[in-house]
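Marked as duplicate of an earlier ticket. Keeping the data here for the record.
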Amino acid sequence: MAKIKLKRAQPHVDMTPMVDLFSLLLTFFMLTASFRPQEAKVIDSPSSVSDKATPDKDVISVLVSKDDKVFFNMDNGKDTSAHFRNQLITKINDIYHLSLNEKEIKAFGQGSSFGMPLKNLKAYLSEEDAGKKEAMQVGIPMDTVGTQYPELEIWVAYARELNPTAEVAINGDAEANYKTVKKVMDVMQSKNVNKFNLVTNLQKEEATLDDLK
């Protein structure tokens, strides 16, 4: 007597729970993610073969644009409750009598890189027009006009005082004048910052003799 062959059932996986889980995760990340504010200037860093990653937390950044303007940035570190940027601007506000209000201090705390003289900082933070704000980004002075010390030196000194463990990174544009970058390094060394990261783009292949011909 022939055996009765049972019809094989095709395997079936119900993906409905996975879709629900994906939707929940997507919603969670959209509501909790904090996007990094846009930098004041786009910096086209030079290339190098170094594969050491620049730290993305606890870092003090100095940017040098291709038109030799200098910008400064300080993140809030690993402990975001520390609010280093808010502490920094509060200290600068008290010492140099900038008359910043709570709204302007909060705006600074949520911002990114900036570059203007101290005397123009209040106008920048209170300005809502993006075009006018961009026009105010004329670079941080590296001379002693109006202050006892170069203004870049002031920002670096108080930033390191608030977060001594922060690393310093200099991000100079490939077309920036070397003298400007050297002057930034001199400011760093004047505040006993003798170790800092130079930000570059990774060049995957080393240059050969044929490339130099």
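See parent ticket for discussion. The mean pLDDT is 80.
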